[in-house]
Design goal:
The chain is α/β, with parallel strands linked by helices. It has helices spanning 13-24, 36-55, 61-69, 94-107, 123-127, 161-173, 189-205, 211-221, 228-235, 237-251, 260-267, and strands spanning 5-9, 28-32, 71-74, 85-88, 113-116, 136-140, 150-155, 177-182. It folds into 2 domains: 5-182, Rossmann fold; 190-275, N-(1-d-carboxylethyl)-l-norvaline Dehydrogenase, domain 2 (Orthogonal Bundle). It has 11 helices and 8 strands. Helix 1 packs across helix 2. The protein binds 3-hydroxybutanoyl-coenzyme A. Residues 49, 56, 58, 119, 142-144, 146-148, 189-190, 193, 225-226, 231, 235, 239 line the site of 3-hydroxybutanoyl-coenzyme A.
């Protein structure tokens, strides 16, 4: 199947990044948010990213304008009526995702593939809200989407070969390298990354080292681009929180237990860069 038009549900950090990358690759994109204010915020963030690229001389003004012109913002799922692929990038809450997929099953054409950008939840569980189990898969991007080269492709027991291969071609067509994982909690990257960042929080909590030294240790000792606490601030403490919660519920593995400090920061909305404060200050 040929993908011409792509829908993206959610224009937060991940949804905006996915919308940007897909539109830059030449696809028409419909991107939705729950209200006009969030939609405007998401579209403005895409515009700002593209403006930076123009200022750096990495993108022409004409290409930026053409990219923005390929993006249509909406607050209604009716506008997904002519999409060939719809990617859901909402918060990591199963009930919410199931509701979105039930709506998409009605509004997207019968031939359309439905995908979730979930970080940790079961794609099969989401698929049960639809009448097209064979046309569901996971397409998991990484933050910041325009920079990170990886996509994890998640195949459920019901995903058809055609859906899977179309998903693979699509991810490659937007410039990503594909790795494949089964529909198991956290797939590959989060299964390895989440325990590490949670351990970093426990290290801080127990006073073994300062936030700066934990981050510097991993950055210089393991050559990671950023330390684990800075990474939580980038991804969003709430995002890591929901992923860890879902992975613990699914596996009961104690390495996914959320440390006390994270519960407190979550309650205080110290969510990282997006709220101006996390492990570090961004104001
Ligand atoms: N959006 C778009 N582009 C961005 C960006 C953003 N949010 N942040 C940085 N960039 C671009 C910059 O514009 C710059 O582009 P250029 O080379 O064309 O000028 C390039 O990235 C490098 O940025 P900087 O020079 O400002 O800074 P760094 O060299 O430190 O790179 C980083 C920033 C790319 C964020 C790097 O620190 C990094 O790779 N960090 C690790 C990120 C990571 O691990 N992500 C995965 C998180 S886990 C996840 O997403 C899974 C999910 O399920 C939770």
């Amino acid at each position: 199947m040929e993908i011409k038009k792509v829908g993206v549900v959610g224009c937060g950090t991940m949804g905006a990044g996915i919308t940007q990358v897909v539109a830059m690759s030449g696809y028409q994109v419909v991107t939705s948010e729950i209200n006009d204010e969030l939609l405007k915020k998401g579209l403005n963030s895409i515009n700002a990213q593209l403006t930076k690229s123009v200022e750096k001389g990495k993108l022409s003004q004409a290409d930026k304008d053409a990219t923005m012109a390929r993006i249509k913002g909406t607050t209604t799922t009716k506008d997904f009526g002519d999409c060939d692929l719809v990617i859901e990038a909402a918060v990591e809450l199963m009930d919410l995702k199931k509701k979105i997929f039930a709506d998409l099953d009605k509004s997207a054409p019968k031939h359309a593939i439905l995908a979730s950008n979930t970080s940790s939840l079961s794609v099969m569980d989401m698929a049960t809200a639809t009448s097209r189990l064979d046309k569901m898969l996971g397409i998991h991007f990484f933050n910041p989407v325009p920079v990170m080269k990886l996509v994890e492709l998640i195949r459920t027991i019901a995903t058809s070969d055609e859906t899977f291969e179309t998903g693979r071609r699509f991810a490659e067509s937007v410039g990503k390298t594909v790795v494949v994982a089964k529909d198991a909690p956290g797939f590959i990257v989060n299964r390895l990354m989440v325990p590490q960042v949670l351990h970093a929080v426990r290290l801080l909590e127990s006073g073994i080292a300062s936030r700066e030294d934990i981050d510097t240790a991993i950055q210089l000792g393991l050559n990671h681009p950023m330390g684990p606490l800075t990474l939580i601030d980038l991804v969003g403490l709430d995002v890591v929180y929901f992923i860890a919660q879902a992975m613990y519920e699914e596996t009961k593995d104690p390495q996914y237990i959320i440390p006390n400090l994270m519960h407190k920061m979550f309650a205080a909305r110290w969510l990282g860069r997006k709220t101006g404060k996390g492990f570090y200050d961004y104001k």
